[in-house]
Each structure stands twice: as structure tokens, then as C-alpha cells.
Amino acid sequence: MTAHTHPPKHTVVVPTGKWQGRVCTDLAESTLQRLLCCIYIYYVDPRWEYSYRRAKKPIMMSGMEKEFIKRHHRHEIKDNQCTSFLINHIKAPVHLAWSLVRRFDQPQKYKPFVSRCVAQGNLEIGSLREVDVKSGLPATTSTERLELLDDNEHILRVSFIGGDHRLRNYSSIISVHPEVIEGRAGTMVIESFVVDVPEGNTKDETCYFVEALINCNLKSLADVSERLAVQTGPTD
Known about the structure:
Elements: E1 10-13, E2 23-25, H1 31-44, E3 51-54, H2 63-72, E4 81-90, H3 94-101, E5 114-120, E6 128-133, E7 141-150, E8 155-163, E9 171-181, E10 184-196, H4 203-232
Antiparallel strand pairs: 1-2, 1-3, 4-10, 5-6, 6-7, 7-8, 8-9, 9-10
């Protein structure tokens, strides 16, 4: 198989099956399309061989971003696990973004791949939710536990404890912080994770898959939050 010769940051080429020859890149595909392609390869049949390249460029962060990550995004990482984080900036006040993020019982408010969620009990540490994934994706269900919900610091921590998916021992932290964007109240969202690396995959492949999923969620969070901001009016 000939590797894709264009120079985007991420390239995935489907080698066989109904999507043979499909190329997913940061330049040519939307976040959703890229994620679906990545899922089809990584999730459906991890034995497939495929072309994968990922440029390792240093991430430029502000002092504030580094401080938030150091303070709130601590994970215990084992040898067979990988970890990463993503940062997104939303043109909406922090209270609107947090009102969506904190709803452990209703992740479908902004997560595009969640079709249904049934939460058990009140929103408290140890609460469980059963998440159904939209049809068309290889995963079907996920059992998730609320580990932390801090309305003062705006921090949510969730772990996956079961379900029909390959994200074993997955734990994520999402923190929401006020900032000023173009002279108006905005929000910085940081999401980090740690997860087992499945047999047959590398740490880079696993991180890329999870990052693609989180990117899709954060983009949707920004879209929904910014629509709410338009509806409620500007906040200085």
C-alpha cells in the first residue's frame, strides 16, 4: 500500500472494505468525517493495517493554560496507557458553557454521538449513567461514573467502567475557565484523558482516536454555547 503523499498533520488511509482508499486529513475532511473514518479503522477491526502519520510539534500554551493544566488535570498513568489534553476557546460566557458540561445526566445536550442517557440517582460522586451511542457507530453503550463535580472551580471528572467499546480504564477531566475574547466574556475549556492502549494499537494511534472524539465534542460544545449566548444577549 502506498502511503498518502500530502503533508497534513494527520493522515489515515482505509486499506480495504467499503471505504477502501478513503483518506482522512485535517485539510480535506471535517472533524466529524475524520472521526468517523478513524473509528471505522481503529474501532471496527484493529487488525487492519493502515497508513498513519502524526507530526509531533510542540504545543504553544499561555502561562494561564499551563497553570490550569498543572492544577486541575492530574492523571495517574500506567505503562500501558496514554494521555493527552485539548484546549478550546468559546465565544460565550463561562456560565453558559458550564451549564452544559455539568449535566452528567444529559451529555447529549452537546455531545453529538450520544443518543440517550439514563442516570441513576442524584448528581453526586459515584452516580452512574448508561449512555447509548447513535446508530452507525461501532460502539453501542457505555457505563460511566461521576468522579467529581465542582461547581465552584467548574471541573467535571468522569470514568468509564463498562460498556460496548474499546476505551478501557478511560478517565477524563474537563475544566471550564472564564476569559476575555475580542473584548467580550468568553470561555476556555480544557479536556484531558487517560486510557488503556488496546492490544494491536500504539499510544499515538490511541491518542489520535480519542482526540478526534473530544475535538468533535468540544466543537459541538462551542456551537451550542455560542447559540445560547446569542439568544440571551451579550455579556460584557
